[in-house]
């Protein structure tokens, strides 16, 4: 019998694949109804709010490249580089907690400064 | 014979322990002479420049709390929350590449916005 010891990592990687393809329904299929997500700009609570957050971000995302992925049965951590409309390279980390195949808790870590600088440039044009 | 498969993680955790204690010499003992570090503000090259970067940061660091750590023989990724003089909670990630027991490559990911906001507040006082 093969004992998998990285179930959370597998879910996080499947989530990431759907997310990088900007497949909203597939991405949301991995998200628990009561998901809690801490992003640099603040906390997002519940699948409905998270869907809105994804919809906004998918409009900016051009491409994502996975740099590193680690995890075990409960949690996983992914490092990826986002190419977005305003920022050509935005290294970002997601830390995911998984229960019963669904993501219940997310922490996103990335630097908002390049996004804010791009927004100021757009305003100045 | 026990086969360790997480040598990079062990080095990263020892580095982190020294770093969280603000032990400059011990922290630097894990850094390769030709280290390359990509931080949000830019690239730091070489152990001498990295030592200067640490000295500056240690003046701000009050406490660090490790949230998650993963790794294998080549790389490791740590998520921790920094309590600093200007910012009470700054979730941060380090991704480390280790060769022959020394850290040769680091990527740091954190949000600079709270640090910049704190700097503006200080200037306004």
UniProtKB/TrEMBL annotation, chains A, B:
Q: Where in this chain does the record put each SnoaL-like domain? A: 14-106
Its domain of life reads Bacteria
Q: What is this protein called?
A: Nuclear transport factor 2 family protein
Where does this protein come from, organism-wise?
A: Jatrophihabitans lederbergiae
């Amino acid at each position: 019998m093969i004992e998998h010891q990285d179930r959370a990592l597998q879910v996080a990687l499947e989530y990431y694949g759907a997310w990088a393809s900007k497949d909203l329904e597939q991405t949301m299929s991995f998200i628990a109804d009561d998901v809690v997500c801490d992003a640099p700009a603040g906390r997002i609570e519940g699948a409905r709010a998270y869907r809105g957050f994804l919809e906004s971000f998918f409009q900016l995302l051009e491409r994502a490249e996975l740099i590193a992925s680690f995890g075990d049965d409960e949690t996983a951590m992914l490092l990826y580089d986002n190419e977005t409309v305003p920022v050509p390279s935005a290294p970002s980390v997601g830390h995911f907690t998984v229960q019963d195949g669904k993501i219940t808790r997310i922490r996103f870590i990335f630097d908002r400064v390049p996004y804010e600088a791009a927004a100021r440039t757009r305003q100045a044009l």
